[in-house]
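Module 6 notes. Inverse folding takes a fixed backbone as the condition and produces residue identities as the prediction. Think of it as a translation problem where the source language is geometry and the target language is the twenty amino acids. Below is one complete input and output pair. Work through it position by position during the lab.
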C-alpha cells in the first residue's frame, strides 16, 4: 500500500488523473489497484515524483548489474503505459547516460523489445545503441545470431544501420542529443529547452562524470 498526494499524482499522469476523477469506483474510494505492477517500480516512481528526478543512489544501492537495466526498462514501460511522460523521458536519459559508458548487451534488451511498440522512443534508442556497438566491433555476428528475436527486429536493426551515416560512431553519440529520444510535444511534458537545461545540470545521469553539452541531433546527416 502506497499513500500519495492526489494533486501530485494527477499532475504527473493522464492515467491517474482520469482514474481518480472519472466518477467510478477509483474516484469514490480514492484508491487505484495496480496488481500488475511491481512494488519496486511504484516505489521508484514515488521517489521520482517527490524528488523531481530519478533516485540514482537507490538504484545503485538496491540493484546491481543487469538488474539496474531491467528495472529501468520496467520503469519506462510503466511510465509509458500510465501516461507519466516526464518519467518516461527521465528514464530514457538515465538509460542513455548508462549506455554512454557501458556495453549494450543483447541479453539485457531481448525481452523488452517484445513489450514495447516498434514506434516507441525506447525501441529507437535500443536500435541506435546496437548500431553503435556493431560499429565498435564489440558486438559480433556470432552473438547476434545466437539471440532469438523476431524478423521484424532484425529488419529494423539492418534498416537503421543503413540509414545512419558512417560518422554515427562513439558510445556517447546518443547521449549527446538525448532529447531526440524524448517526447516533448505532448500535454504535460516539459519543454525541450528545460529538459536540456536539466540534463546539462546533471539530472537523471547515471554516471557521475560531467554531463556533456547537448547538441542538435545529426544522426540522419
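Target side of the pair, the amino acids:
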Amino acid at each position: 500500500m502506497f499513500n500519495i498526494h492526489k494533486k501530485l499524482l494527477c499532475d504527473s499522469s493522464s492515467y491517474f488523473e482520469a482514474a481518480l476523477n472519472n466518477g467510478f469506483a477509483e474516484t469514490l474510494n480514492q484508491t487505484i489497484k495496480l496488481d500488475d505492477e511491481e512494488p519496486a517500480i511504484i516505489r521508484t516512481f514515488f521517489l521520482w515524483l517527490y524528488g523531481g528526478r530519478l533516485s540514482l543512489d537507490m538504484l545503485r544501492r538496491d540493484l546491481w548489474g543487469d538488474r539496474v537495466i531491467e528495472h529501468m526498462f520496467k520503469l519506462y514501460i510503466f511510465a509509458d503505459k500510465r501516461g507519466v511522460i516526464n518519467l518516461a523521458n527521465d528514464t530514457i536519459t538515465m538509460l542513455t547516460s548508462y549506455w554512454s559508458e557501458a556495453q549494450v548487451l543483447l541479453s539485457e534488451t531481448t525481452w523488452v523489445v517484445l513489450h514495447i511498440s516498434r514506434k516507441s522512443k525506447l525501441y529507437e534508442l535500443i536500435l541506435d545503441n546496437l548500431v553503435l556497438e556493431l560499429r565498435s566491433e564489440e558486438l559480433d555476428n556470432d552473438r547476434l545470431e545466437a539471440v532469438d528475436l523476431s524478423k521484424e527486429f532484425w529488419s529494423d536493426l539492418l534498416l537503421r544501420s543503413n540509414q545512419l551515416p558512417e560518422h554515427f560512431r562513439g558510445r556517447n553519440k546518443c547521449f549527446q542529443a538525448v532529447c531526440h529520444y524524448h517526447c516533448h510535444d505532448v500535454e504535460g511534458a516539459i519543454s525541450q529547452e528545460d529538459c536540456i537545461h536539466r540534463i546539462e545540470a546533471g539530472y537523471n545521469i547515471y554516471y557521475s562524470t560531467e554531463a556533456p553539452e547537448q547538441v542538435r541531433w545529426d544522426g540522419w546527416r
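Reference fact for the lab report: Residues 85-200 form one domain.
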